[in-house]
Amino acid sequence: MSKEKENTSGEDIENIKENIHQEFGGEPAEEFIDEGVDQIEEEQEPEGQSVSENEQLKADLDKEKDKFLRLFAEFENYKRRTSKERLELFKTANQEVMTAMLPVLDDFDRALNEIQKAKDKNLLKGVELIHNKFRETLKNKGLEAMEVKAGDSFDADMHEAITQVPAPSEKLKGRIVDVVERGYKLGDRIIRFPKVVTGK
């Protein structure tokens, strides 16, 4: 800061104002001078004060930025979770209808076995066509038959044992001897466990 600025008295400022007022005439000169005086006062403010204000503003900005990033991350997690739940809901929305159709599918399987014994090729062909169409329609809706056969290891989480019989051979001890009713999955969820007979 120069000595000239320090020695500028109120009387000198008034003289400068008067000269500019006479030269330019009117209010714009007054406004121009007021702005100049404000600028001089700002220059005379201690530097520490403006630095601390900058630091405060930077700290506030960092705080708001951190809050925004946390909020954004939470929103992304929420979107991911809800989309996964929605996908699961779509997969299992028709579970009740599928479960109701399973006995019909079982009847078709039994009917097909009986018609094969009758040796009527035309009848067998017609029923097979209807059976395959029905099974494919259910498969397209997400229904999947669980592949279980005699000789497979018994798993209590995947199979439902309805009875135990003496094993016909040593290999079948603790294993599945017969499948009484097929199991089905809808997507990744088992909607009917296969009913099996195990050997002891």
Automatic annotation (TrEMBL):
Primary location recorded for the protein, binned into one broad class: cytoplasm
A Pfam family: GrpE
Keywords: Chaperone, Cytoplasm, Stress response
Region (Disordered): 1-59
GO process annotations (BP): protein folding
InterPro entries, per database record: GrpE (IPR000740), GrpE_CC (IPR013805), GrpE_head (IPR009012)
Subcellular location(s) per record: Cytoplasm
Biased composition (Acidic residues): 28-46
UniProt key word Cytoplasm: yes
Entry keyword Electron transport: no
Biased composition regions of type Basic and acidic residues, renumbered to the chain: 1-21
An annotated Gene Ontology molecular function: protein-folding chaperone binding
GO cellular component: cytoplasm
Protein family: Belongs to the GrpE family.
Function per UniProt: Participates actively in the response to hyperosmotic and heat shock by preventing the aggregation of stress-denatured proteins, in association with DnaK and GrpE. It is the nucleotide exchange factor for DnaK and may function as a thermosensor. Unfolded proteins bind initially to DnaJ; upon interaction with the DnaJ-bound protein, DnaK hydrolyzes its bound ATP, resulting in the formation of a stable complex. GrpE releases ADP from DnaK; ATP binding to DnaK triggers the release of the substrate protein, thus completing the reaction cycle.
Subunit structure: Homodimer.
UniProt name for this protein: Protein GrpE
Lineage per the UniProt record: Bacteria, Pseudomonadati, Bacteroidota, Flavobacteriia, Flavobacteriales
